[in-house]
Amino acid sequence: MWEYTDKVKEHFLNPRNAGKIEDADGIGEVGSLACGDALTLYIKVDDDNIITDAKFQTFGCASAIASSSALTEMLIGKPVEEAEKLTNKDIAEYLGGLPREKMHCSVMGQEALEQAIKNMRGEAGTKAEHSHEGELICECFGVFDEEILQAIKANDLKSVEDITNFTKAGGGCGKCHEDLERLLAEAQGEAAACATPSATPAYPAEGMTNIQRMHLIESVIDDDIRPALQADGGDIRLMDIDKTSVTVQFMGMCSGCPSSKATLNNLVQGKLREKVDPAITVTEG
Amino acid sequence: MKTIYLDNNATTQVDPAVFEAIKPYFTELYGNPSSMHRFGGQVGVTIKEARSSVAKLLNCDSDEIIFTSCGSESDNTAIRSALNSRPDKRHIITTAVEHPAVLSFCKFLEKKENYEVTYLGTDERGRLDLDEYRKAISPDTAIVSVMWANNETGNIHPIEEMAQIARDNGVIFHTDAVQAVGKVSIDLKSSAVDMLSLSGHKLHAPKGVGALYVRKGLMFRPLLIGGHQERSRRAGTENTTGIIALGKACELAAKNMETENTVVSRLRDKLEAGLLAAIPDSKVNGDPENRLPNTTNISFGYVEGEAILLMMDQLGIAASSGSACTSGSLEPSHVLKAMSVPFTFAHGSIRFSLSRFNTEEEIDFVIENLPPIIENLRKMSPFSAEKEGLACTGPGSMQ
Ligand code: FES
Fold first, then answer.
1. Would the CB atoms of B382 and A39 count as touching at under 8 Å?
2. Between these two residues, A257 and B130, which has the higher pLDDT value?
3. In chain B, what are the domain boundaries?
4. Cβ(A173) to ligand 1 under 6 A?
5. What is the Å distance from ligand 1's center to A162 Cα?
6. Which end of chain B is more exposed for a tag (fewer CB within 10 A), N or C?
7. Interface predicted TM-score (ipTM)
């Protein structure tokens, strides 16, 4: 048996706002009998755009019923603009969490809400078809790649199992698992590709020529490291730079100091890694 | 709250007489049956008696019984032994409706060890097609493993006939009889079954003990290798209390078989008829003509199994569901799927499995209290309006 929070159990056993609103302003229908869960959400909105009533009809397991009940409770009294921002995570949080395998129940709530609001605005019919954008990935549950990619991004999904928990794709015969892996890689690739063109380089010396990099190392030694050593009666001299290997020599009080190794690692190498390149290694010449 | 336990295909209550029989073996008689001294030796004698009780129930010889830790171990041992004793053969025949102890193991062998596996399908009642079976057997077939009775629907398969066909083709035949032992009469002396698995906790012994029947003369390769227990066919110190319990449980099962087939099956039929009459759009899954006396699998259209189970749980009624949501997967039971039960019905299927400890009052309580649960859930469902009256229009109609 699943581990449900008391709140999930409470909403399942005593669902709030179950039923239909005959003159609803917006209706959102998602899911199907074949998929094992389905939800129809009804909303009533007043002239000030406040949701005055919300009701649901759900076919599904305990968490599907609890998610629907929770959603209606969250909606009543909210301005539409605010309601629009509700996500599946909010529904799950309201219930004190859902087993990860049941997250798709909360996703169903969010989808029904989106659909009901669209329907209220006259932008769509009542029934949310699967996005049907792109390629059909999971035949067992009729899930298309657009929907999967969206779920990966919105919920920061990391594995095929996650995708199944949130979209049901992959929960049947398993034939689509390879495609799900591919979509995960694609989404992660996109995230990496998005990060690269950012204005700030990943580390200061990135993209510099060798000469520029050497100058940067010299200036970090002069400006950030030497003053600290001199304050203690010591000094440092740059001896060689070979790509990311830097050789230095300690002088004054620092030469032969028992803690020179720590100074080398923490201060010298630390500063150079921070201000030049995280790959730098510093040795004493 | 009193529990009404209708999930006996999952596990059973330990019979009080079984419990009484094993008590001294925890406290006073704790010797190791392999020891040379009398203190251990006397336990060895009791184990011998237990072995003989198991053999009696199956009508085979005592030395054809190997004690194991559970049904899964018996199943794995049987299949592995057959494959190891016929290393030149690479084909296995089983069914799509087996318990995971066989099904998952066959899938593993297929994937990781390149065995070829034929999974026999079923019709919509869960019946196997013997022609398909005959055609599947080839000179490369090492073993056929088919369950005697299905755990979800209670369907009884034509094991005697299938075993004979295997024998005629020189193929080893194993049956997972975990659900059948103690409920239907089994006579291994007059059958062509080569290996048979059973599990203690399905027949009122505790969990953690099982047995494997291996026909005399059949080449056997042990799974557990170590000490000389079980005549070197299964190493490991005996689960003495479990084994003694299993012996006692088999003795009682032989005595109670009559009750299983009359009293228990009457209660089951009453439950089934009562629910079908009170709940529109419900139907029995499986083959009512050929099934275990204690099991019924009923689908309630347009409701989801987990929701039903949890609502029943509130009233102290314990049963099982073939719904996806209870299993951790998202698809309904592989058994109902193999039988092509429409999704509409598969999602809302409940398995009731009774035992001789159930009473008439319990059944009356369920017949009275389950219909309102289904009605409430249906009222909440978006499909209820379209299905006014909820008349069942037959399989496949509402997918
Ligand atoms: S195709 Fe996706 S699980 Fe079957």
1. yes
2. B130
3. 4-9+257-388, 16-254
4. yes
5. 14
6. N
7. 0.82
